[in-house]
Write a structure and sequence with these properties.
This protein is α/β, with parallel strands linked by helices and 430 residues long. The protein has 14 helices and 15 strands. It has a nine-stranded mixed sheet. A two-stranded antiparallel sheet has the order 1-2. Helix 5 runs parallel beside helix 6. The longest helix has 16 residues. The radius of gyration is 21 Å and the shape is globular. The relative contact order is 0.12.
Length: 430
């Protein structure tokens, strides 16, 4: 039987640069877009090579790779059919944790006794559904993921040809043996959370003596086993004023990590109603300046910051756009900072919940900044939540709970659409 190709894609590394072309009868129509994409891509700094591809950030697959091609396909679908599929899922593996962080974003659901963690098979089934939906980055979070006895089995279940599997951890359990086991299970990268570059302050904020030393030792163990490593931290009024982000980057450079991620301080968890912690515009501009400075300096680890992503150069809010979040018991929401649930994978397929979330008035359109820092969004969806309420709020069981008020309520601010499949890796600030 004759073989006819409508559209194909060929990618290769040549002298460290990604080159490629679209093939088939439609190839000539897309080669211009592909050329622009590759031009933008090749301007980015390569932080490692893995599986025969360039790694530009710990949040995306190496390019070229099968998973990277799948992500390009997803971007094509967005560009030409306006169909939205997630590239990333953040999956809470457990609520259990050795630390008792004063700022824990999961604090208000840790005490829930009416919910049971997903079984191993339920978790693996969700991973399968996520990959079928187009996810190319599976992020495991907590609580502390290493407290799940089946964590290595879960990691091994993520097909590395289809998606990266990365983990956020406090670092307590990163012994040399565990680092070796994680690598053998197929972990792509590990982000270790540090609240301060100063040992005593970090341990005090985490209410866990000795954690800082174990986290730093754990990062070195991972690096020695060949695992890609990053530090996850955040920008606050205090650490910006005291220059602690610069000190954190110096620590990352000294350890030899590949990337530093700087989140904004977001009102969530025990601080759900404390908006005093939100950075002002000048502070966000300072974080962006630091991000751009480090991005251009190959002597430092790569830098990703939420302030940069939620800016005109970036891609806006990821929630229910590029990603979804799942609690340890299977509730699906927009992101790990937003205490809203749109369905349970124990009751419905993931695809149905994703579509429900996309059709909600707060998420059907793109939004240029983090919604959890937007006063209008918070007024309609967050401020009415009573203090101490077990989270997340199950919107799907009460669809009219947040009906817009007569003035129309919160309206997402539009985001200009980028060309050539977003041109580069700007969706995570690279």
């Amino acid at each position: 039987m004759p073989h006819y190709e409508v559209l194909g894609l060929e990618l290769e590394l040549a002298d460290g640069q990604v080159q490629g072309r679209a093939t088939g009868t439609m190839g000539s129509l897309l080669n211009g877009y592909l050329s622009l994409f590759l031009q933008g891509l090749n301007k980015n700094r390569v932080i490692a090579t893995k599986g025969g591809g360039n790694v530009y950030t710990l949040y995306q697959p190496p390019i070229p790779s099968e998973a990277a091609v799948a992500d390009l396909t997803r971007k094509l679908m967005r560009t030409f059919t306006k169909t939205l599929y997630p590239s990333t899922c953040t999956l809470q593996t457990t609520n259990r944790c050795q630390a008792k962080c004063v700022h824990c974003s999961a604090a208000l659901n840790m005490s829930r006794k009416d919910k049971k963690e997903l079984t191993t098979e339920e978790f693996k089934n969700l991973v399968d559904q996520a990959l079928d939906l187009g996810v190319v980055n599976v992020t495991l979070s907590g609580g502390e993921p290493l407290m799940r006895k089946d964590i290595l089995e879960i990691i091994s279940h993520v097909d590395p040809a289809r998606a990266n599997c990365m983990m956020f951890t406090n670092g307590m359990g990163l012994t040399r043996e565990m680092a070796r086991d994680l690598n053998e299970a197929g972990i792509f990268s590990v982000m270790v959370s540090l609240d301060s570059p100063q040992e005593e302050e970090h341990d005090s904020m985490r209410r866990c003596p000795g954690l800082f030393k174990k986290a730093v030792e754990g990062m070195r163990n991972l690096l020695e086993e060949g695992v890609l490593v990053g530090i996850s931290t955040y920008a606050s009024h205090e650490n910006l004023k005291e220059g602690k982000l610069q000190k954190m980057m110096e620590l990352g450079k000294e350890i030899g990590v590949h990337e530093l991620t700087i989140f904004d301080t977001v009102p969530t968890g025990e601080y759900l109603h404390n908006c005093d912690c939100i950075l002002d515009q000048d502070e966000k501009n300072e974080v962006r300046s630091l991000t751009e400075k480090w991005r251009e300096d190959p002597d430092y680890p790569q830098c990703i910051s939420q302030a940069w992503v939620n800016s005109p150069q970036g891609s806006g809010c990821f929630a229910a756009n590029e990603q979804f979040y799942m609690t340890a018991w299977g509730d699906i929401g927009p992101c790990d900072f937003t205490p809203l649930s749109f369905g349970s994978i124990r009751e419905e397929p993931l695809a149905a919940i994703w579509q429900r979330m996309l059709s909600h008035s707060a998420y059907k359109d793109a939004h240029g900044q983090c919604r959890m820092q937007d006063p209008l969004f918070r007024k309609q969806y967050i401020d009415a939540i009573p203090q101490g309420t077990p989270l997340p709020i199950e919107v799907w069981k009460n669809p009219h709970a947040f009906d817009p008020p007569p003035d129309g309520g919160f309206k997402p601010s539009g985001k200009s659409k980028k060309t050539a499949f977003d041109l580069s890796l700007n969706k995570v600030g690279v």
